[in-house]
Input
Amino acid sequence: METTVTQDFANGAATGAVSTVYIIIALVMYVLLVIANWKIFTKAGEAGWKSLIPFYSTYIYVKIVDGNGWKFLLLLIPIVNIVYFIILDIKTAKAFGKGTGFTVGLIFLTNIFTLILGFGSAQYIGPNGVAQQQ
Output
């Protein structure tokens, strides 16, 4: 069975269209996650722009949910980083007054639950769910 130039062109055009749609969806999701992270930082009393800077944003995020930002260095250690990511998800849920179900959602559906946290009505309590004394 031979393919013609027309069939090859049609297949290539279809693949290109699907790729374009995928890229657009990925970009929209990325922009929504950037805005959600900005809002999460703002809810925690940090400047939203801090969520845009690589490494520094991770330091601030760990400081927000765990209380000690320098623990973000644990994320650089193989195997330890996986365990600490799960611990951070648990602490994130606590810091915003959420329960076990939200924690499971953060672990398995991170992007969706980040959007819920950023755009939802969750209020920041404090690192580890403990209110800070002013």
Notes: The chain has a mean pLDDT of 89.
